[in-house]
């Protein structure tokens, strides 16, 4: 979580409850996107159910990194973030975890406020570098982690088109 992001006081408690009751290995939640003056820009609502997350895993990262909570045994089995995937190390970690049979989900409630600014990872000055590493993650998913269903290959194939999109014009959904 970045130092200027904000988690609601109940976020961890809510996520822990899901880890315990629903036997999920990784849990995240939705988030409000705010600007430097705490004004609402929009919402980020990644998929919630693990089956949907797996289905679209090679389309886009399924969790908001600053909201993720996972069991210690996931790290013991999967290992740590790999430095060669800097800027997308969380995405590669999620693919590794799912390839090893772990399941994750997102709570369909905004328990986090993600601050967006010019130096943000996704829309900041390093967005092209971020997308290059994201493509590297997807290639690793297909070739090393056996994400090779036709839709996985399709999502890998359309990834280069993301370099044509200006991230400053692709704002989170309003709501």
Structure description:
This protein has helices at 11-21, 50-55, 72-78, 89-99, 127-143, 150-158; strands at residues 6-7, 26-34, 40-44, 69-70, 104-115. It has one domain: Spore Coat Polysaccharide Biosynthesis Protein SpsA, Chain A (Alpha-Beta Complex). Strands 1, 2, 3, 4 and 5 form a 5-stranded mixed sheet that branches. The chain is 35% helix and 17% strand. By secondary structure, it is of the alpha+beta class. The model has no long low-confidence stretch (mean pLDDT 88). Helix 4 runs parallel beside helix 5 (127-143). The two termini are 23 Å apart. The chain is built from 6 helices and 5 strands. The radius of gyration is 16 Å and the shape is globular. A hairpin with a 5-residue loop joins strand 2 and strand 3 (40-44).
Q: What labels describe this entry?
A:
alpha+beta; 5 strands; 5-stranded mixed beta sheet; Spore Coat Polysaccharide Biosynthesis Protein SpsA, Chain A; 175 residues; 17% strand
Identify the CATH architecture: Alpha-Beta Complex
What is the CATH first-level class name?
A: Alpha Beta
Low-confidence stretches: none
Structural class of the secondary elements? alpha+beta
Order of helices and strands: EHEEHEHHEHH
Q: Distance N terminus to C terminus?
A: 23 Å
How many separate structural domains?
A: 1
> Which homologous superfamily in CATH is the superfamily?
Spore Coat Polysaccharide Biosynthesis Protein SpsA, Chain A
The share of residues in extended strands comes to: 15-25%
């Amino acid at each position: 979580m970045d130092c200027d992001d904000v988690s609601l006081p109940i976020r961890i408690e809510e996520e822990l409850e899901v880890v315990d009751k629903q036997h999920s290995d990784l849990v995240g939640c939705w988030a409000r996107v705010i600007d430097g003056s705490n004004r609402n820009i929009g919402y980020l609502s990644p998929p919630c159910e693990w089956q949907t997350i797996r289905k679209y895993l090679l389309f886009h990262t399924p969790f908001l990194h600053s909201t993720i909570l996972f069991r210690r045994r996931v790290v013991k089995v999967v290992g740590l973030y790999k430095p060669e995937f800097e800027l997308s190390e969380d995405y590669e970690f999620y693919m590794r975890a799912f390839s090893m049979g772990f399941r994750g989900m997102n709570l369909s409630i905004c328990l986090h406020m993600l601050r967006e600014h010019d130096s943000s990872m996704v829309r900041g000055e390093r967005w092209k570098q971020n997308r290059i590493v994201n493509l590297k993650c997807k290639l690793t998913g297909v070739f090393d982690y056996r994400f090779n269903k036709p839709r996985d290959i399709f999502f890998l194939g359309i990834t280069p088109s993301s370099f044509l999109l200006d991230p400053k014009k692709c704002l989170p959904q309003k709501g």
